[in-house]
Amino acid sequence: MTRPTSPTTFANLAEYTEPDLYDLAAYRNVFLLLPSPNRGESLQILRKRDVEPPSDLNFDFNRHFLAHHGYYDLAKFTVYTQGRTPTETCAEIVALVDGNA
């Protein structure tokens, strides 16, 4: 995997294989964004947000991503978003990055 030279966002929309996922471990600012510290509650919130999943989808991606240990292992920081605005979440991330510089 080629290391980016500028800040990069890795969305949870793509699943990395184990080797690819752990290649990201070299980065010091890796964030896991979740609605809640409680995985069950996070799953319910994410399902409510997914108001129009494809009718032929027979796989629960939210459950899969929440259960995959690699994302938790990799994250240097976990930020919880429930009840917060995007601006508030962003401010927390910026403060964490600034404190980790």
Structural class: mainly alpha
Q: Report the biggest beta sheet as strand number plus sense, adding barrel if it closes.
A: 2 strands, parallel
Please report which band the strand proportion falls in: under 5%, 5-15%, 15-25%, 25-35%, 35-45% or over 45%: 5-15%
Q: What is the end-to-end distance?
A: 24 Å
What is the H/E string? Answer: HEHHHEH
Domains counted in the coordinates: how many?
1
Q: How many strand elements?
A: 2
Rg (CA only): 15 Å
Number of helices: 5
Poorly predicted segments: 1-13
What percentage of residues falls in helices of 4 or more residues?
A: 40-55%
Tell me, briefly, the overall form: globular
Q: Walk across the major sheet and give the strand order.
A: 1-2
Average of pLDDT: 80
Provide a descriptive summary of the structure in words:
By secondary structure, this protein is mainly alpha-helical. The chain has one domain (18-99). The chain is 44% helix and 8% strand. The chain has 5 helices and 2 strands, in the order αβαααβα. It has helices spanning 18-23, 39-49, 61-67, 69-74, 86-99, and strands at 31-34, 77-80. The protein has a two-stranded parallel ribbon. α2 packs antiparallel against α3. It is globular, with a radius of gyration of 15 Å.
What is the structure about, briefly put?
The chain has five helices and two strands, in the order αβαααβα. The protein is mainly alpha-helical and 101 residues long.
Characteristic key phrases:
101 residues, mainly alpha, two-stranded parallel sheet, 5 helices, 2 strands, globular, disordered N terminus
